[in-house]
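Researcher: Please translate sequence to structure tokens.
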Amino acid sequence: MTWVPEAAAAGSTDPAGPGEQWPRRAAGTALLPDDGSQARTSLQVLRHLDSGPRGLVESEAGERLARFGGNTVPSRSTASWPRRLLGSLRDPFTVVLLCLGLVSATVTAWGTASVILSLVVVSCVLRAGGERRADRSVAALRKLVATTATVLRRSEQDAPPRSREIPVDELVPGDVIRLGPGDLVPADVRLLRASGLTVHQAPLTGESAPVAKYPVDAPEPRGGLFDQPQSCFQGSSVASGSGTAVVVSTGARTRFAATRSGPGPRVASAFDRSVHGISWVLIRFMLLTPPLVLMANAALRGRGLETLPFAVAVAVGLTPEMLPVIVTTALARGAALLARDHRVIVKRLPALHDLGAVDVLCLDKTGTLTRDKPVLHHALDVRGRPAPEVLHWAGVNAWWTLQLADLPAPDALDEAILDAVEEDGLLAYEGVTALPFDPVRRLSTAVVRGPGRLGLGLHTMVVKGAAEDVLERCALTEDERGRLLALAAREARGGLRLLAVATAERHARTRDYTPADERGLALVGFVALRDALAPTAADALEVFADRGVAVKVLTGDHPGTAARACRDLGLDPGSVVTADTVDGLTDGELAEVALRTTVFARCAPEHKARIISVLRADGRTTGFLGDGVNDLPALRAADVGICPRDAVDVARESADVVLADKDLTAIAHAITSGRHSSVNIATYLRITLSSNLGNVIAMLATGLMLPFLPMLPVQILVQNLCFDAAQLAFAFDRLHPAALRRPTVLQPRRFLRFITGFGLLGAAADLATFGVLALALHDAGGSAEAAEAAFHSGWFTENLLTQALVMLLLRTGRRRAEGRTAGPVRRAASALAVIGVLLPVSPLGPLLGLTALPPVYYPLLATVLALYTAALAVARSRHDRAGPER
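Model: Translation complete:
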């Protein structure tokens, strides 16, 4: 046990008398762990907090709780329904649709205005509802950082201290608490005394190995904040040993909570950048269309404001009205399937699209590639050869230390050793005593009486610990010690954790053994351990490679340990880059290094965030998997932040995606689902915009050549409604796995080339139909009104048929996806074609200004459609040979 002399000397009286007041400066920044308190002695800290080793008086604790608030991390409030709906209106296409709806209402085109408003409402409700369901699912996964704490308090000033359990939210600065194995550290604390105390700081630092903690009466201001042995922080947990500590910071003043104020608003995600880039280009076209139509008709045909409804209808025809609905439906469906089949919760629907676009996945090593426990790798003798006897003696040490030192459970390293040895061989010995692990000695000792030595004979002292410390206590020459240290260093560079094992014979005695007896040892050998690999990590890495996703390991752990884990999983680590190297690089240099480097070791939170930021600046779409406070900046910097459900609370709130299990295969499924939704959204955009652009070009050209409008506004609206309804099938389209092997990112320039090329091809088919109509109507004769109605009907039918062809021929992976089974898109296209043929001759036709067509029109139209189909097939084949979207 380690005891702070000055703290012990304080005895049974507090440094401050009962009449002294709580220091005012302790209320604010003076209680933060980086305010210089790390350089104070323990007694100075106690005086600063107006406390003592016997703890606080209950009345004083209540006063401080009322003054400074509970020991809870501030939580973010959930957005209300109105706020969610208003947030959904920020989509640029939704804004344009609202503007067009207002214009339609202004010119009394109530049908158009009603349809547009309905689309906006449906889209907003779907998106808000999906995000609300995701929030409820995440709330069900929340876990408290800690529930209760063991605190020393007194009923009155002169009363003896009493140990009792209280809820952690009732802890206040100055409370004296006790820590034991398995406890979660409930606040930022300063150790007063400790016995073999080690803590897991992985949620804070990312380092998987437990860290030794012990009181230091005169701390040296060197090393990082989390390297200070006398301080433990909220979010960490006790791995072994016990301790008594004084609380220095609670609630929002802890290091755990301070990260909530770090980086500002998130940068626009891949989804936002791709869709908004295309949106604003199309918005400019839509805003220019009505005035151009008005001016052209006024100049060439002498028409005035009576063409305004037609101009608005043309603008609506160019607008992908169903984009918000298609996007929300596709993403909500993908998110629902992920939650049901793979227990992956998507909190922010656009994050599913971003997952599909991810081409770089950054993650920590601990808990993702490896489990949070080591396993035995091998045992070596002093010559570096395999030696089972070394493992036997290591097991004797681990077993009898656990039994005789009254430890509640073995630490992770001892547990790995005990898993690898036979228990019967350990029970053959009789335990005498044990000296448990001490973070200062860095070793543990078990004293046993072996078989056949049951009298007063000999005791065997078995010592196990850090190689340097054990070798220092062995009877070795300098050359032998140097050779063995080189052997240990070589094993460490290979990513293994090395423990040395030594023995010594001592005459049996009744007096206690002490650390002074750990001298003149005979080295038996070394036990090497490695991190246990996550069972599904190797398979997931293969899937990532097949999907074109590069994996980057950003860890706070040792370079050798991280590289070893990667090699064991078949991932080539290459040259490992450490945080010191990162600090010496500019952003441009770091971007080049990051693209060719797999493992970054000894990374602090700011290093992880910076690496992700430079990858994004280089045009990569990044995902980051993290679960600790140290991962928070990186979660916010990535396009998609991912965390498991057992992550710290603040990480779950900042993440976009929450995994029910920390399993990389779940991320692989999520990426595949995201790509499925992304491909369907991109297919919808390509098809609808190319078709709409062709229709608008043909309509404008024909409108200037004809003495009447080429199509009535109500007919344009009905045509758009039929096409839009059919395109809902894209949200449910089935895709072949080959279509999901690369990320889908909408590049505005290439996208615009696509819709322009196929739009002009569609316009050519429409203009050819104009010639066919002229020929058919010329032969049919009749009045001008009848000819005008027939023209409208012929073009209405042709438009829906060509749009049905476009849906079938321009969709992604169409042949491989469906085979012989008709999928939703094929069924929707067939229904669209049937409506196009039958609606003009149905009872609804006259209500819309449509009429039956002369028989000669249909064979001529079939010829145009056959030529259009051939042209589409050739153009699509050339486009496919040009390569994928990105």
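Researcher: Any highlights?
Model: Residues 1-35, 141-146, 261-265, 814-819 have pLDDT under 50 and may be disordered.
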